[in-house]
Each structure stands twice: as structure tokens, then as C-alpha cells.
Prior knowledge:
The structure is a single chain. This protein is mostly helical. The protein has 2 domains: 190 residues, Up-down Bundle (Growth Hormone, Chain: A), CATH 1.20.1250.20; 221 residues, Growth Hormone, Chain: A, CATH 1.20.1250.20. 74% of the residues lie in helices and 0% in strands. α13 runs antiparallel to α15, α13 runs antiparallel to α17 and α15 runs antiparallel to α16. The two termini are 25 Å apart.
Amino acid sequence: MTPIDDAPLTRAPRVPAAPVARLSIMMFLQFAIWGSWAVLVAGHMRNLGFSDPQINLVYLTTAIGAMLSPLIAGWIADRFLPNQVFTGGVHLVGAALLVVAWRQQTFNGLFAVVLAYAVLYMPTIALTNAIAFHHMPDSRKFGFIRVWGTIGWIVINWVMSLYLRMWEQWAPGASRIGDCLVAAAILSALMGLYCFSLPHTPPSKQAQNPYAFLDALKLTANRNFAVLLVISFVVAIELPFYYNLTFLFLTEPGTGIGLRESQANLAMSLGQIAEVLIMLLLAPALRYLGMRTTILLGILAWPLRYAIFALGQPTWLVVAAQGLHGICYSFFFVGGMIAVERLASKDIRASAQGLIVFATNGVGMLIGSLLAGQVANFFLLETGGHAWAKIFLVPIAITVVAAVAYALLFNERRFRADSERIEREAAAAHA
């Protein structure tokens, strides 16, 4: 297989240390905000007495935000305001909304506030990426900045685990898990103020169609791209079974694992730690295993993890299975991004990536949240717990079918030929 980055390149200008540090802090705060509440809010809603469908409806707000993100970011930030100003203002408003969300006790109230917050927050993911790329002469080094987002997610989860552990010791039986929303509000306020200190990132001079990524639909004429798009969508449907339900599974006594809230939150952070480590193996895997096998391994890591969850014992194995998230994310999602990059011509690469994100983080996650809520509610026991083994059979089936379909339909030889052809065409155009 042709190595991903073997083409001769001119030496890129050295990125000054100060901008790198400032952009890294931006990424750290951006994902620390999300990480502070994304896991723990499930436990908070359970304590408020929400049903399984209601819990998953609150989670699907981020999918709605992801679907509206191109419209908001494209219409406002790309046309009217500098990116850092818009992002800073949105995070300050988001901080206020998170405080309001913390005070909600009913489903309707919490859903409405979190929906408003998600619609504002999700566009900032793309905007912080745009800020970073704008001030980096060498875009290939973006990963060194983006990894600080994952580190931010890990660190805030450790801090929240320590906070919850202290409360478990000081006031046994009294949960403070809802304070995750306060932590997110504080971080959001810090991020909002910090954004105003970032380098100036002016709006795009040319107004573009915010849903220009739909232009990439013509790439579906390429069978490998079509396979990646459909399989990514299918895999995204099972993601809420992990993101929305795992914390409940780990902390539910009797039918679940029965970990303390602080322990479960810490256990789930192992997935992000593994993500950082496995990312280092991605390039060698693509070089020696090929795109087809690498992505297939990423898909297969999901049913393996759910199978361990379904067994439910021993506890150390269930906790250790969180580390499979690193293979799932790095090999499948990041590997898929690289595959799309190599299958799309330069003028449509951004649109192709946008289409994949819309299909996964948007439509796929939305359908998955609705499905996970109904499945969890269907297998709710009279005793109040869940038949977790039966619940996890659903994502096992989804991911196994996805893996088989991908293995049968994705053609590695054709992929190599197409990517090499596109690379030659790009080189000829550049010359």
C-alpha cells in the first residue's frame, strides 16, 4: 500500500510556539466543556426520575445541533463576524444556559435548555478547527493541537471523578452529579473570555452555501466512498448505546456493574486515554494492513466491547473494555476520514468530510438516540433495573452486520488505484 504521506513536500514554515500553545489551550477548553457533562448528565437525569426514552431524547439534542451546525457556522461566522468573536460570544451565552439547565427539574425544561445549548455549542467545534487551521502554515500538524481536546476531555473527567468521590465520602447517599452542568458552565465562561484573546480570524470573503457538503453526494458514484458513507451511518446508529447508556450500566446496582458514580466516570475516561495511544498506531496500521483491514478492525472492536458488556463480569474486564474505544474511534472514524480525503479531489474534500459528519454525528446519532431509548425502556425490569445483556445484543447485531457488509463491499485494490489517480491529478494540476 502506498504510504499516506510519502509524497515529496517542501518544508513548511515553522509554526511559532506561542500560537501553538494558545490554540492548544483553545482545544483543551473546547472539549473539556463537553466532557464535563456528556457522561455524567445521564446519571443526573436518572436521579431526577427521567425515563430511558427521555434520557436519550436529551442526548439527541447534540445530533440536532450537529445537523444545524453548518447552517449556523456558515451563515454567521463565515459571513458576518470573526470566528473568534462569534465563538467567544456563543460560549458566554452557553455558560448562562448551562446554569439554567442545572436548575431544571423536569424533562421539558431540561430538554428545551439543552437543545438551545447544543444548537449553539456544536458549531463551535467546526469553528475552533477553522481558527486552528487559519493560523497554522502546516495543516498536517493539526493533530498535535487537536489532541489537546482529547486531553481536556480526560482531565475534566478525572477532576469530576475526584469531586464526586469527595462528596461520596462527605455525604454518603447524597449525589452531586448534577454539578457537572455547573462545571461545564464555568469552563464555557472561561472559554468565551479566552476566545477574545485568540488571533484574529476574519470571516470568509465569499459567502458559501452552508450545506455545500451535499455536493459531495456525486462521490457516491465511487463504490468505496458509497460503502464508507453508508457503513459510517449504520455504525453511528449504535453509538448512543455506548455514549448514552454505558454510565447507567456501570452504576446500576444489581443488574448493572454497580460502580460508584466517581468510579464509572473515571472508567469511561479510559476510552479517551486509549484513543490518544491508539492514534499513534493508525499510520503504521494503514501502511502495513491497508485501509480495508484497518477500518474493519475498528468496526469489529464495537461488537467485542458490547459482548463484554453483555457478559457483565468480571468487573475488571468490563472496565478494561472501555479501552476498545481507542480502536473504534481511531481506526474507524479517523481512518475513514483519511479514506475520504484520498477518494475526493481537492476541490470537494471539505464537502466530502462534511457529508460524512452530517450522516454520522447528525442523522445517525439522532436515529440511534431514539432507538437506544426505546430498547432500554423495552428491557426495563419490574424491579427497576435493566436486562443489559439483551440491550447490548442490539448494537452487537448492528455492528456485526456493518462489519460483514463492509468486508464484502470495500475493495482495497480499487481504493489504492483511485487514491493514486487522484494524487497524480492533483500533482499535475499543481504543476
